[in-house]
Design a protein that fits this description.
It is globular, with a radius of gyration of 18 Å. It is built from 13 helices and 10 strands. The chain folds into 2 domains: about 5-70 and about 210-310, Beta-lactamase (3-Layer(aba) Sandwich), CATH 3.40.710.10; about 75-205, Beta-lactamase (3-Layer(aba) Sandwich). With about 325 residues, it is an alpha+beta fold. The longest helix has 23 residues, at about 5-25. The chain has a 5-stranded antiparallel sheet, sandwiched between helices. Strands 4-6-5 form a 3-stranded antiparallel sheet. α1 (about 5-25) packs antiparallel against α13, α5 packs across α9 and α6 (about 165-175) packs across α8 (about 195-205). The two termini are about 30 Å apart. It binds glutamine.
């Protein structure tokens, strides 16, 4: 394909920036702390760093450990939200709110005052409620298959799998999530057996993907709901906008304000150290560095995204 000279220049600038950011991150000594409350995640090498940017013209710029699969953890919440909205539309908002929580990802404090309705779909309680919606009418295995196939379809990669060891590790130790789920069940917010809903939740958190696969999977959110390569609509443009809005306000738990302040892009973190971010109209981005900050978000991942967004002039609040 022949490209206009200006496009070539923009593409090579993106490649340069992505490599420079990866090099700068490799040299840093401050890496945060790898999550260890899920024992299997504690075994991940803290020196890993990967980045991939898929732009709306079909290019991918990637560097570092961009092809190493990692546990996407809470990043799966973006995709389960998309599926649940597809299934029940705006009725979803009867089961979960869409306001920032200002609390840690696994907090239970607001649930009592708010009668078991979680603040938003990106805290654990909210994602468990969303998973319950996807599960209704299915066996857990079918619901999980639907989520996994959705990821494979979006990334156009059938090789994406669930890391069973991570899922089992969380299933053995996920007492906080069990408490959240039982508490919501007592208010009638969950309709399926708690064990079934949690089983599906733990397994979709344990999907393993590389930065490249994740950046490709998220392209519909940077391109008004459509895959920029195939033109296939995943969701309507309005829904893509709204999912991005919730990522901006709730995607980093109690660190969401800081992420917006520093990076200026909708983003969703996971305790595996991944962050998925969207530059609307421009690109879908994934970074991975396993060490976390105090709010449970990737320490270097956020710093890398701040540098990328600044260099590319991608902040949604202005260049
Ligand atoms: N599976 C993790 C949990 O439920 C997801 C948390 C996260 O990535 N922030 O604790």
């Amino acid at each position: 394909m022949t490209r206009m000279p200006t496009e070539d220049t923009a593409l090579s600038q993106l490649h340069d920036v992505v490599h420079e950011v990866a090099d700068a991150m490799r040299r840093r000594a401050d890496r945060g702390a790898v999550a260890d409350y899920i024992p299997e995640l504690a075994t991940v090498d803290p020196s890993a760093f990967g980045i991939a940017v898929a732009d709306n013209d079909g290019n991918v710029a990637a560097a570092g450990d961009c092809d190493v699969p990692f546990s996407i953890q809470s990043i799966s919440k973006v995709f389960t939200l998309t599926l649940a909205l597809g299934k029940v539309g705006d009725n979803l908002w009867r089961r979960v709110g869409r306001e920032p929580s200002g609390s840690p990802f696994n907090s239970i404090v607001q649930l009592e005052n708010e009668r078991g309705v979680p603040r938003n779909p990106f805290i654990n309680a909210g994602a468990i409620a969303v998973t319950d919606v996807i599960l209704s009418g299915h066996q857990p295995r079918e619901a999980l298959g639907e989520i996994l196939r959705f990821m494979q379809f979006l990334a156009n990669d059938k090789a994406i799998t669930i890391d069973k060891a991570v899922a089992a590790s969380e299933q053995r130790t996920g007492f906080r999530n069990m408490a959240l789920a039982n508490y919501m069940k007592s208010f009638g917010v969950l309709t399926n057996p708690v064990d079934f809903t949690l089983g599906v939740y733990f397994h979709h958190c344990a999907i393993a993907m590389s930065c490249r696969q994740l950046a490709l999977a998220g392209r519909f959110l940077s391109h008004s709901g459509k895959n920029p390569e195939t033109g296939i609509a995943v969701v309507h443009a309005e829904r893509a906008r709204r999912i991005n809005a919730i990522m901006l306000t709730c995607g980093h738990y109690d660190g969401s304000g800081e992420f917006a302040f520093r990076v200026g892009l909708p983003g969703k973190s996971g305790v595996g150290g991944g962050i998925f971010a969207v530059a609307p109209g421009k690109a879908s981005i994934a970074v991975w560095s396993p060490g976390l900050d105090a709010a449970g978000n990737s320490h270097l991942g956020r710093i890398a995204l701040e540098a990328l967004s600044k260099r590319m002039g991608w902040s949604i609040f202005g260049a």
